């Protein structure tokens, strides 16, 4: 028997269906007239309100999974069931009403913000697209969202080039929230930021998740950052999942040599459980700096 939330277990308890269930996903690109599998039989699921990280070296297929989810590329096999609907095979016209529910936040906020619009207009735009005709309501909500990501009201009339990288990323997050998404796909969303700013943005993301019950798919090559934000980790290598589990388990006792290598490059001293995002990110920075200067870290 199933319920709207998922199958009922014997004894009457309900197992909540994941918000996103990716199964046997294959994405191929054409290269030199041949087909190349960038994502090869990948399966994982993201619980409602959870944060699952996809980690792996450059070229392992992380962004391709994100692109497939918003159908910038079409999978050649497998399913991506989002809240009961398989996005992999859905015709475009049926996909359209779902699009606002999955929002991407990219690495380079500058490239994705219209330079001619003010911060307020950038954040208000998705509301107009979704049919909010009342400009004063759009403006009020944009101001509230920018406030939630820690930008002052004096920021409302400024244009993207007048902001720092971290502030621009906050605007990108506020804009994503303006669509009322269920799932945020964060593709290296903090990678371009310096460490203390990265910590602030991670803290904002953690707070927003707690407050709004948002669900995150967090794509990153940085295990320190992943440890700060995610509950579960999927480790990708050459398009295939090599390991998965809770963040604590995978990062503290990686089963695969590949994951151990990734972990070493993220610097083990920084892997300290139970710490707040900003503490972990600072520890990563301190360890990196110590490594550069040859100092020994505890
Ligand atoms: N449009 C494309 N056409 C052909 N090959 C592509 C295309 N986009 C990505 N690839 C290849 O697919 C593989 C996976 O790329 P992808 O960008 O998903 O990796 P990634 O793990 O996100 O890497 P990075 O961390 O460097 O962004 C790589 O070998 C890449 O060169």
UniProtKB/TrEMBL annotation:
Organism: Microlunatus sagamiharensis
Family, per entry: Belongs to the ABC transporter superfamily.
Pfam families the UniProt entry points to: ABC_tran
Nucleotide-binding found in the keyword field: yes
The UniProt record lists the keyword Electron transport: no
The protein, known as: Peptide/nickel transport system ATP-binding protein
SUPFAM superfamilies: P-loop containing nucleoside triphosphate hydrolases
PROSITE patterns: ABC_TRANSPORTER_1, ABC_TRANSPORTER_2
UniProt record, GO biological process: transmembrane transport
Record keywords: ATP-binding, Nucleotide-binding, Transport
ABC transporter domain: residues covered: 20-263
PANTHER family: D,D-DIPEPTIDE TRANSPORT ATP-BINDING PROTEIN DDPF-RELATED (PTHR43776:SF7), TRANSPORT ATP-BINDING PROTEIN (PTHR43776)
GO terms for MF: ATP binding; ATP hydrolysis activity
């Amino acid at each position: 028997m199933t319920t709207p939330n998922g199958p009922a277990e014997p004894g009457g308890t309900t197992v909540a269906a994941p918000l996103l269930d990716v199964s046997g996903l294959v994405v191929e690109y054409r290269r030199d007239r041949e087909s190349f599998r960038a994502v090869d039989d990948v399966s994982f699921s993201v619980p409602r309100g959870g944060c699952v990280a996809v980690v792996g070296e450059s070229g392992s297929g992380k962004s391709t999974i994100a692109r497939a989810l918003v159908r910038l590329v079409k999978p050649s096999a497998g399913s991506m069931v989002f809240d009961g609907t398989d996005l992999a095979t859905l015709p475009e016209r049926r996909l359209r009403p779902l699009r606002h529910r999955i929002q991407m936040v990219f690495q380079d906020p500058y490239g994705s913000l219209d330079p001619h619009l003010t911060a307020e207009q950038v954040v208000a735009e998705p509301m107009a697209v979704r049919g909010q005709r009342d400009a004063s309501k759009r403006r009020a909500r944009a101001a509230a969202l920018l406030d939630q990501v820690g930008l002052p009201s004096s920021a409302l009339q400024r244009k993207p080039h007048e902001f720092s990288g971290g502030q621009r990323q906050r605007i990108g997050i506020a804009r994503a929230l303006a669509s009322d998404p269920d799932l945020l796909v964060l593709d290296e969303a903090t990678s371009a930021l310096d460490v203390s700013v990265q910590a602030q943005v991670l803290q904002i993301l953690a707070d927003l998740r707690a407050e709004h019950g948002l669900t995150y798919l967090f794509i990153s090559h940085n295990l320190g950052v992943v440890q700060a934000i995610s509950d579960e980790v999927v480790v990708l290598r050459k398009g295939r999942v090599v390991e998965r589990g809770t963040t604590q388990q995978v990062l503290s006792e990686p089963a695969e040599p590949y994951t151990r290598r990734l972990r070493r490059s993220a610097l083990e001293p920084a892997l300290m459980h139970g710490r707040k995002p900003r503490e972990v990110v600072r520890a990563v920075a301190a360890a990196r700096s110590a490594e550069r200067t040859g100092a020994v870290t505890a």
